[in-house]
Design brief:
elongated, TetR/AcrR family transcriptional regulator, single chain, Homeodomain-like_sf, Arc Repressor Mutant, subunit A, DNA-binding, HTH_TetR
Length: 216
């Protein structure tokens, strides 16, 4: 992949045709997870621009051939590392959403999650870059954006009032997810304060959720 697209193109970024892996044993799976955690830590610290197997191998303290034993190439490794970053952020979001020091309503939980999503916590730059990459080259990297929905929609459904129907939870979760994603893009591109950062829209979203909950 060309440098502008985040992952460098080189002959070592993909597993050779016919390359066989016997990485299904518990020991191999544990090693794979260890390598993924180390590469993910590197992405969290430095972003995903210029990611290559050689850079990833250096971060993991191994060789690119060892990574090819456990992963299907740089793009496979990138997708899994971004997914792990999202899992980490989701854990932080859920911890904030269900903390006992705020209103235990959907609006209150969404408000509690907002600082996690807008902050500069672990991997935020890499996650922003992953979304940009998916928008820049959707044919190749759409999964980097789709995976985000797969992580956060179930969490948003969980935040909804338990008495709501499944259909209502699904509809509101999708609405909130789309709105938050839009506000985040606006915030990243339009500034962090005032209308340019999406704050007015976010407050309007919370008022809408309060009315929705009050309706029963």
């Amino acid at each position: 992949m060309r440098e502008a697209r985040g992952v460098k193109e080189d002959s070592e970024n993909a597993a050779p045709a016919g390359y066989r892996r016997s990485a299904g044993t518990p020991r191999a799976q544990a090693r794979r997870r260890e390598l993924l955690e180390l590469v993910t830590d590197d992405l969290a610290a430095h972003g995903l621009v210029d990611l290559s197997l050689r850079r990833a191998a250096k971060a993991a303290g191994t060789t690119h051939k060892v990574l090819l034993y456990h992963f299907d190439g740089a793009e496979d490794l990138l997708r899994e590392a971004v997914e792990l970053l999202r899992e980490r952020r989701l854990a932080s979001s859920l911890a904030a959403a269900f903390a006992p020091d705020h209103a235990q309503t959907l609006a209150g939980r969404v408000r509690a999650v907002w600082p996690v999503l807008t902050g500069t916590g672990e991997g935020q730059r890499a996650l922003d870059q992953a979304l940009g990459l998916a928008m820049y080259d959707p044919e190749r990297h759409a999964a980097l954006a789709v995976d985000a929905a797969g992580h956060f929609l179930p969490a948003l459904r969980e935040m909804c009032p338990p008495q709501w129907s499944d259909q209502r939870k699904d509809e509101i979760a999708e609405l909130v997810f789309a709105a938050l994603r839009g506000f985040l893009v606006q915030r990243r591109t339009g500034g962090s304060d005032g209308a340019g950062g999406g704050e007015a829209g976010f407050e309007a979203l919370l008022r809408m959720l309060e009315r929705e909950e009050a309706a029963g």
